[in-house]
Design the sequence.
């Protein structure tokens, strides 16, 4: 999803270029009309505080408002435009971008997932799990023919009868950006670490429950929540979903083809 | 015993997979997995058909169970789901209103 960011601070623009390296390019290279989302950043030191404060995402007359201790943001999806008031902390805009992606994807049958993802043999695989389930571990164990899309937040978008997984700049413990590439989604695995490597099928109901537990979603808008639920159900109906139990060594990748 | 009428909560989202329904409550987004019998009753809960008709025509025929005990189980299940806000129950037929349009369904 092309996002255009405007800031009057060259220093902050440089920070963002480095932070999103591989996903960022000077705005002059792209037409303004190509952006699905455009943000104007108003930097203000001293007025913001705790980034660990709860996120609030509310909607009024189609206009979204997102607040946390370290930012206040507004976004109008019809105008495709918004503002972010924050200090010069790149993690603040990162949080806003994640939220905006969840809102936009929810309307398109897609989602952001707490999951690592990677491409092998032209197919994308998603490895979902809560913190400690093994997302970073399986990413570290990936052999050289695997292209890592992310070790933390996966981006899945509906495309025809299937789904496409995209690389994201949203990192986890690996602190390494994914590659800015995409591939058709072949399978979703729910990660568990165990004494042996195995893949087991998961009943559809459990799969939906596990998938929803890993969907990033911040808004309480009932209609959008229903859409996220329907999207999770649809994905489980169309894509192979299984539980992947693995030992922390590279042989697990012999099963991911 | 008076008749009981059931109606699906229109704000809840539902998806039936392999004959079993997943229902997401429109009240608090809680997920419920219904077994095949509960799914059958859920699908038939149109607010106009009484529970004993649903049990007699759908449940007893589909699962070859005895009417009296099936009706008792169905009523218990309906009251439990009603407690979670995903089903309405009433001793009168229920006319539902679409929460989005305000129109009767």
Sequence:
């Amino acid at each position: 999803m092309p996002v255009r960011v405007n800031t009057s601070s060259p220093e902050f623009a440089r920070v963002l270029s480095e932070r999103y390296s591989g996903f960022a390019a000077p705005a002059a290279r792209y037409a303004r009309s190509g952006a699905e989302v455009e943000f104007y950043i108003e930097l203000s030191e001293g007025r913001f505080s705790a980034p660990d404060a709860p996120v609030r995402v509310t909607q009024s007359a189609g206009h979204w408002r997102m607040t946390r201790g370290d930012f206040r943001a507004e976004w109008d999806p019809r105008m495709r435009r918004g503002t972010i008031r924050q200090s010069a902390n790149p993690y603040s805009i990162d949080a806003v971008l994640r939220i905006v992606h969840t809102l936009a994807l929810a309307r398109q049958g897609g989602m952001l997932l707490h999951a690592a993802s990677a491409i092998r043999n032209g197919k994308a695989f998603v490895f979902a799990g809560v913190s400690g389930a093994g997302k970073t571990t399986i990413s570290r164990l990936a052999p050289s023919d695997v292209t890592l899309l992310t070790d933390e937040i996966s981006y899945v978008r509906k495309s025809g009868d299937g789904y496409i997984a995209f690389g994201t700049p949203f990192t986890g413990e690996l602190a390494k950006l994914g590659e800015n590439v995409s591939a058709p989604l072949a399978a979703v695995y729910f990660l568990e670490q165990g004494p042996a490597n195995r893949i087991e099928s998961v009943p559809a109901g459990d799969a939906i429950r596990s998938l929803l537990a890993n969907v990033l979603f911040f808004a309480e808008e009932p209609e959008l929540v229903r859409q996220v639920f329907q999207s999770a159900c649809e994905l489980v109906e169309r894509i192979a979903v299984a539980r992947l139990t693995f030992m922390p060594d590279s042989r697990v990748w012999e099963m991911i083809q | 015993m008076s008749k009981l009428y059931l109606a699906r909560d229109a704000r809840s989202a539902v998806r039936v997979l392999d004959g079993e329904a997943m229902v997401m409550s429109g009240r608090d987004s809680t997920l419920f997995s219904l077994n095949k019998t509960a799914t059958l009753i859920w699908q038939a809960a149109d607010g106009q058909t009484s529970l004993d008709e649903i049990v007699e025509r759908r449940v007893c025929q589909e699962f070859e169970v005895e009417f009296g005990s099936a009706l008792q189980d169905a009523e218990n299940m309906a009251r439990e789901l009603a407690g979670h806000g995903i089903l309405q129950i009433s001793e009168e037929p229920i006319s539902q209103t679409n929460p989005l349009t305000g129109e009767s369904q």
